[in-house]
Design brief:
single chain, about 350 residues, alpha/beta, nine-stranded mixed beta sheet, six-stranded parallel beta sheet
């Protein structure tokens, strides 16, 4: 086949810092044919900057006018499901930004559309492609941790409410830090644990800081328009006996500016992901192992590279549509438990 012909739906920050540069680095195999933005002026500005020929204000117009092989969906969360399903029906492979959708029912419809169309649906959980996670995965798969029976997930910002975009709008995003940054670390833990089947979720969300004026380390926000949680805490129990504790925040009174990490506890060893370190008992001694010479690489580039390779060679992506459904079922359960004050059984 010739070059992979790609269209982009959405031209915000993630499209410009991740998707467009990554596709352009594979220019011998990939051509960005078109992009979509509700503002034609903005779309034309971005298109001129990157030398993209076709501009549309509607993704449906793009599908009617252009013959595309693949699409990146880089829009607010609320529109993911409809745009992904339309792209699949148009015969395109799809790379969708995280989270998959607002709700698990949407993710299920997206997975079903992918199955009907015979096209690939992948999600951009880019931390799976980091050098740290790839190293941990090799060790875990080799049995260095044994049975991972517990995990702790942290995605915490002291004052990291985004001062741009729609991150504080529940109607557009579906939630706050849980569905934005917490989902990244939750996915990382599930990936390293081989996606055990969940049994129950007990969670709480809080809105104590974002709904009033304050110091912002990621720009200023409008407290009156802050409709999401600023922190979420919870526990997942799995059917294999494992448990996972999750803490995530946009704003909370803690010492550090930010912590993003996953801690794993197995019966043969434990591990921390960022930076990678292992904790074991060997030959009568307690042993700590670090990886000081790990080679850093661009996880966003590698995520798009994987999508391109899967499109061209018919391979299975690292994050599948079915895994997207599993993650969204857990996110739904977190918010449901927080609302009702009761455990949700899955």
């Amino acid at each position: 086949m010739g070059k992979l012909k790609v269209g982009l739906i959405g031209t915000g920050e993630i499209a410009q810092v991740a998707h467009i540069p990554a596709y352009r680095k594979r220019s011998e195999e990939v051509e960005i044919v078109a992009l979509v933005n509700r503002s034609r002026e903005k779309a034309e500005e971005i298109a001129a900057q990157y030398g993209i020929s076709n501009v549309f204000t509607s993704h449906k117009e793009m599908f009617e006018a252009c013959e595309l092989d693949a699409v990146s969906v880089c829009t607010p969360n609320r529109s993911h499901a409809a745009m992904v399903i339309d792209a699949l029906h148009a015969g395109c492979h799809v790379l969708c930004e995280k989270p998959p959708a607002l709700h698990a029912s949407d993710a299920e419809a997206m997975a079903a559309a992918a199955a009907r169309s015979g096209r690939m649906l992948a999600y951009n959980f880019s931390f799976r492609y980091s050098s740290e996670v790839e190293a941990l995965k090799r060790y875990a798969d080799a049995g260095e941790l044994g049975h991972i029976y517990a995990a702790r997930v942290e995605a915490m910002r002291r004052r990291g409410i985004p001062g741009w975009g729609s991150f504080t709008n529940k109607e557009l995003q579906g939630g706050g830090p849980l569905i934005d940054i917490g989902i990244h670390m939750l996915d990382t833990a599930l990936y390293l644990m081989d996606f055990p089947e969940p049994a129950s979720v007990l969670a709480a969300t809080h809105q104590q800081i974002g709904n009033r004026p304050g110091v912002g380390l990621m720009g200023s926000w409008d407290p009156e328009a802050f409709t999401v949680e600023d922190a979420a805490m919870g526990m997942i129990r799995f059917k294999n006996g494992a448990s996972l504790l999750l803490e995530t925040s946009f704003a909370i009174n803690m010492r550090e500016k930010q912590t993003m990490n996953v801690h794993l506890f197995g019966n043969q060893g434990g591990a921390t992901v960022f930076p990678p370190a292992f904790f074991q008992e060997k030959h009568g001694s307690l042993v700590d192992l670090s990886l000081p010479f790990i080679v850093e690489h661009d996880k966003r580039q590698r995520a798009v590279d994987d999508f391109i390779t899967c499109c061209l060679e018919g391979k299975t992506p690292r994050c599948t549509a079915e895994q997207g459904v599993q993650i969204m079922r857990l996110i739904d359960a977190f918010y449901q438990s927080a609302e009702t004050g009761e455990a949700v059984y899955l």
